[in-house]
Amino acid sequence: MSTAESFPSRIAGNRAFELPADFLRRQPVAAGGLIVILLLIFAAIFAEQLAPYDPFENDYGAMLAAPSAEHWLGTDSYGRDILSRLIYGTRPALVIGFASSFIGCSLGAVIGTVSAYFGGKTDLIIMRFVDIMLTMPVIVTAIVTAAVLGRNRIGAIDLNLVAAIAIAVVPTVTRVVRSAALAIRDLPYVDAARVSGFSNTRIVLRHMLPNVAAPYLIMLTGFIGQAILLGAALTYVGLGVSEPQPDWGLMLSGEAANFYREAPWMILFPGLAVTLAVFAFNLMGDGLRDWLDPKFAD
Amino acid sequence: MVAYVLKRLALMIPTLLGAAVLIFLALRVIPGDIVEVKLRGDGAAISEEVLQKERQRLGLDRPLIEQFGEWMGGLLRLDLGKSMWTERPVSEEIGSRLNLSLHVAVLAMIVGLVIAIPVGSLAALYPNSGLDYAIRIGTMSGLAIPSFWMGMLIILALLHWANWLPTPTFVPIWQDPVACLTLLIWPALAVGFRFSAVVARMLRSTMVEVLREDYIRTARAKGTTERRVVTRHAMPNAMLPTVTVVGIEFAFLIGGLIITEQVFNLNGLGKLFIEATSHNDFVLLQGMVMVIATVMVLTNLVVDLLYSVLNPRIRYS
Amino acid sequence: MTAMAPIDLAHPAAAPAARQLLSVQNLTVEFRSSRGHVRAVDDVSWDVAPGEIVALVGESGCGKSATAMAVMRLLPQATGKVTNGKVMFDGRDLLKLSPEEMRQVRGGEIGLVFQEPMASLNPVRSIGDQIMEPLFNHRDVSAAQARERALELLALVGISDGARRMAQYPHHLSGGMRQRVLIAMALACDPKLIIADEPTTALDVTIQAQILELMRDLVRRLGISLVVITHNLGIVARYADRMHVMYAGRIVESGTVQEIFSAPRHPYTRGLITSVPNLRNPRIERLHTIEGLPPDLSRPISGCRFAPRCEYKVEACAIEPPLDDLGHAHLSRCWRAREDLGSLNAAAIGQPRRADGARPEALGARQLQKHFVLGRDQTVRAVEDVSFGVPAGQTLGLVGESGCGKTTIGRMVLQLAAPTGGRIELEGRTIAAPDTKPDRTLWKHVQVVFQDVYSSLNPRMSVRQIIAEPIKVHRVMKDTSSTAVEARVQELLALTGLLPQMADRFPHQLSGGQRQRVGIARALAHEPEFIVLDEPVSALDVSIQGQIINLLDDLQQKLGLSYLFIAHDLAVVRHLSHRVAVMYLGRVMEMADCDALFADPLHPYTRALLDAVPVPDFADRERATQVIKGEIPSPLSPPSGCVFRTRCPMAVSECATIVPQLEQKKTGQFAACIRI
C-alpha cells in the first residue's frame, strides 16, 4: 500500500457535520469511550450541582467512614466526602490532561514537520536533541522538570505541572510526526507543488501539515490519558497537586497511602476514576487511529 | 558484529555527554537551595553566615563553569561526586539500590513477556472473536491503570487473602532466590502489568497485519499447516516490531518502578530519586540521571542487536 | 436480477468431466465490505484440460484473481465467501473437502505463483527453507532428500549456484530471481496444475520474457496444466491455448486464443485489443478506446454489464445476454455476437512520426550526468553522459527498464534533482547545471504529470482547489476574480474530459483515470509549453490507458505542447513519440526518429527489448524469440566498457574496454555500439 493511502483521504471530502456520525458508525466501541469522556466533562462543569458535599468540608465526626447511604463512597481521614472530591477532581484531571497533551503534541508536531521538511543540519540538530531527551524515561523528565520549575498555581491547576508533562511528551511526538512528514515530503503531490514553484511556507502549511493531522490527532487523544496518569504519578511523589485540592492523584497519595490498608475505599474509587478516564481516552485514540487508517476501512 | 558493537559503544559517548550537559543546566535552574533545606529544614534559626559557610564547603558559591568542569572531570574518571545531603559518594548511594531496582526491572520484564506473548498471539489468531475483545479490553486497562495503584491493590489483596506482607529486606537472587522472589514478585507484577499490556497489544496488531501479508498466502498455498504458518512464518516477522517496543517500553518500566517502589517501601533507585528531588540534592540527581541514561542506552543497544539477529535484512559486519 | 441469471445449458461444463483436470462450475464469490456485499465473481464457469495453458483476462476488479483464490480456498476468511458453485479437480469438489484434505491439494497437487515476488516470499526465512517447505508438507522426505530436490528445482528454473542461493534471503535476490524461486516452490511436489496470478506484472520486460518462456517450457515438458491470470493481452496471445475474458464479475467471452484474436465476438474484447497500441501493426493515428468506467458491483445491475460503455449497444441489451455458444467452443455474452462488427484494423494509419528539423529545440540535455554518492566507494551512476533534444511541439520518448535513469532525467528537468555534470537548456537558456541556482520561474514553462495517480494529488484538496491553486498563487491570468478563476477551472476540466461537477470532488472520490485527468489539468493551469510525462499511463487499466493516451495526443495538437515522455512500455512510446531515446543503465543506447527506430532497430539492446514485448496478436506466436539472458546489473557497479555487454549477444572482448559513443550509424539514427 502506498504511503499516500495511509493518510485519511476518506475524511477529506466530507462535510464537518458528517464526520462525527461517520466516526460513531464505524467505531462503535470508541463511541463508548466518547460517552465516558462526555460524562466526565459534564461532571467537571456541573460539579457544584452534582456533588452532595463541599469537597473541602471536614466532618470530624465521620472520619474514614466506610461507604454508606450518607457517604456513598465513604470519607477520607479528614472526614471529607470521597464522591464529592471525585466529582470535583474531574476538573484538574481533564484540564491537566487536555492542556499538557495539547501543548506537548502541538509543539512536537511543529518541530517534527519543520525538521523533516528542511532536513540537513536543522534536522540533525533537532533529532540529536530528541535522542538525548529520549534516553530518559518520560517520568524522569517530568519529575526533573517539575522539580526545576517549582510550583505556579492558578486555582487548583499547577501550570508548571502541565508544562512538565508537556515537555516530557514532546520528544516522542516529534519523532512520530517527523517520520510521517518525511514520508509525505517525498510524495508526488509535494513534488508537484515544488514544480508549481510554490514557496516553502505554502508547501509546509498547505500541502504537508494538513496531511500529518492524522498522526497528530491520534497522539493528541492518546496522550490525554497518558498525561492524566503522569499527573497522578507526579502528585503521588509529591510534585503535583497539593492538599487540600480535590484531585484524583492526591486522593491516592499522602494520607491515603497511610490509611488505605484500613480504609481501602479511600484509594479504590479514585484509582478506578483514573483508570476509567484513561481507558476512555485510549479507547477514543484507538478508534480514531482505526478510523483514520484506511487499512481498517473495509 | 564485534566492530559494530564497539562502534555503537563509541556512539554512546556523545549521547551521554549531551545528557550530562542537559541535566547539569536543567538542575542549576532549580529554585531552592539545598543548604537552606538541609539546615533550616525544621524551622531552626540558623544564621546567614553558617549557611554561607556550608555553601562554600559544598562548592556552590563557585561559578557555574567551574562546577561544570568539576562534574565533567569527575564523569571522565567515573566519579559521580558526593551527595550534598548525606555526603556519601554518589556511586555508593546508587550502587546498593541499583541492584534492587534492576532486579525488579528484569523480573517485571520477564513477568510481562510471559503474559504478553501467548495473550497477544491468541488475540491475533482469533481476531474479532469474544476472546480477542476480552484480551483487548484487558490490555487496554493495563495501559490505563496507574502502576502505583496496582501496587496498592496487590498489597490489599495480600493482606485480605494471605494476611501477610513480605518484609522489605532485599536479598539478591543469587543469595536467596526464594526470599528475593517473595519480596520482589509483587512490585514486578504491578509494574510488569502495563508492560505486558503494551507488548501484547503490539504483538496482536503486528500479527494481524503480518497474517495479511502476501508471503503468508504463499505459505498457505504451499499446503503449510495453519500451526506452522503461525509459528514459522508469522511469528518471526511479528516479533520484529515487538522487539523494538520492548526496548521503548523498558523506559516506561523504569519510570513505573520509580513510583511503585514507594508503595512497597522498597529502598531502591526510585526512592533515592524522589528523596534527591525533595532535598534539591543535584549532585545525586545528576548522578542518577546519568546512571539511568546509561542503562537506557545499553538497553537500546541490546534491543538493536537482538533485532539484527531476528532480521536477516539487517546484518552488522 | 443478476442473481437469477440463467445457467447456460450449452456450456462445456456439461461435457464429460473426466476429460477436464479442473472444472469451475457456476462459481459465485461475494465480498463483504463497508459498502455492502460485492459480488466479485458471478456465476463463472471454465475448465482446464490436462497439459493446457488457459488464460483468465480482464482489468482490475473484474474478478479474475478472486476466481483463482476461490479455487484454492484462499479467499480472506473474514470478508470473502463462495456462495455458489463447484470446483471439480480430479473428480473431487474442492469446495467440499475438509480443511486438511484441501491443505494436501495446495502445493501438493496445485501450485500457485503470485505477482510481487518480493512480498510473496517470507523476508526472514532463507530461500532453501522456503523451497523445501512444500516437500516437508506433502512428502515423507529426509532433510537431505529435500535439499537435493531443492537444488534440482533451482537448476530447473535456471538458477545457477543453487547451494549458495539456498542459504540466501529474498532481499539478496533480484526480482526475476525471486519469481524463479516462487516457480520452483510451486513445482516442488510435481503438481498437476499451476495457477499463476499476474506472474510477471512487477518485472521488467526482458525479465518478463525470460520468466514466461521458462514457465511455458516447463509446463509443456512436465505435462502440467497452467492457468495464467493477467491483464496483458500480449502474454495471452503469445503463451495461452484458451482464454476467458472477464468483465465485472462475469465471463464475457471464452474460446481458443486463435479464434478470439482473429475474430473477437464481444465488444469488450474488441475494445481491449484495439485500445492498446500494437507494435506489430502499422502505427495508427488514434487509439480506439472504451469510454467510461466499469460498473460498481455493490449496486444491483440490470441488463448487459458492458452496455453503458458499449458502442454497439441496442435495445435488447437492457436484458443481460446469456453466454452464447457460437461453435468451436467459442462463447460470447453478447446479443450481437453473431453479427459482423467490422474489421479490428479499421483505424486510420498514422502520419509518419519523426522529429521535425525545422522546429526549434524546446529543451535539450548536454552531457547530462547524475551521480548519487551513498557513502565511501558507493556511487550510483544514475545518468551518465546523456544528450538529447526535444523539438518544440513534439514528443521525445525516453524508454528503458528499471534503473536506466529515465526518471532521474525527468527529475533534473523539473529541478527536483540537480545534475552533477552537464546541463539542461530550455529554449537555449541553461536551467540546470551543477553550479547554477534553481530558476524560480521555471513553473511557467515546465510542468509534470506523474505516474502514481494515488499520491500525485493532495488528498485534502478538492479538484477545484488543486486546479485553481497555481492560477491564484501565481496570478497566471490578468483577471483573478473568483468568477474568472472558476471559468478557467471549468475550461480546464472540459479540456481534459472531466464533467463540471467533478470540481467539488476530492481525489479519493475519483477513479484512476479521472485522477490522471486532474493531474493533467493541474499541469495545464500553469500554461506551460513543456510537460514532463513520467509514466503517465502505466498505473492505469488498459481501457483507461487508451483514453489518457488519446487525451495527451489531442492536447499536444491543440496547445502545441512539447513532451518529454518517460515510459517503459515500447508500444505506448511508439504511439506518442516523434523521437525516441532508448536507455540502459544510465546511458543512451540508441536514439532515432520514432518510425525509423521501430522499423529498423540498430542497437542489440533495442532489438532485444522489442523482441521481448509480447504483442496482442496471435500471429506473434510464430515469432521465434531471442530472449536475452541475465539480469540488469546494479547501477552501483555497472560493467566496464559498454554497460550492456554482459547481456549482449554480439559482445566481443573489446566491449569490456571501450565505452561506445553515440554515433550516427544511419541517417538520423544514432547508436552506441562498436559492433554496428
What can you see in these coordinates?
The complex is a heterotrimer of chains A (298), B (317) and C (676). Mean pLDDT of chain A is 84; it is low at 1-9. Chain A is mostly helical and 298 residues long. Chain A has helices at 9-12, 18-26, 28-45, 47-50, 82-118, 120-134, 138-149, 159-185, 188-195, 200-208, 213-236, 248-251, 255-259, 265-292; strands spanning 153-154, 157-158. Chain A starts with 8 loop residues before the first helix and ends in a 6-residue tail after the last helix. In chain A, 52% of the residues are buried. Chain A has a two-stranded antiparallel ribbon. Chain B folds into 2 domains: 2-90, no CATH class; 91-310, Orthogonal Bundle (MetI-like fold). The longest helix of chain B has 38 residues, at 226-263. By secondary structure, chain C is an alpha/beta fold. Chain C has 19 helices and 24 strands. The longest helix of chain C has 18 residues, at 205-222. Chain C is globular. The model of chain C is unreliable at 1-18 (pLDDT under 50). Chains in contact: A-B, A-C, B-C. Chain A binds chain B through residues 128-129, 131-140, 143-145, 147-148, 150, 225, 229, 232-233, 236-239, 252, 257, 260-261, 264, 267, 271, 274-279, 282-283, 286, 295, and chain B through 15-16, 18-19, 22-23, 26-27, 29-32, 140-141, 143-146, 148-149, 152-153, 155-156, 159, 209, 251-252, 254-256, 258-259, 262-263, 273-274, 277-278, 280, 285, 289, 292-293, 296-297.
